[in-house]
Amino acid sequence: xxxxxxxxxxxxxxxxxxxxxxxxxxxxxxxxxxxxxxxxxxxxxxxxxxxxxxxxxxxxxxxxxxxxxxxxxxxxxxxxxxxxxxxxxxxxxxxxxxxxxxxx
Length: 104
Description:
Number of domains: 1
Strand content: under 5%
Oligomer: single chain
CATH topology: 434 Repressor (Amino-terminal Domain)
Number of helices: 4
Order of helices and strands: HHHH
Radius of gyration: 18 Å
């Protein structure tokens, strides 16, 4: 059966496309979780800063979930929920979509 979605630069088989897509989404989640943790960690490290419980309340999540985020447990978070958490933490999330690189 021919490739049902012939995309230039995309892996040839559906399984390879799926694996590549999952890996890229995981990389995006890792990037977001790192940025959120980097934003929150200085607040938590400050002597007179807020507690994890206070930050969790501001972000609208349980403290245990915030703790997992700070430990960078990427598998527990969907990309859209990380984008929402990042926005509530005062970060701007931008997505850039571009065509694959083509060799001439």
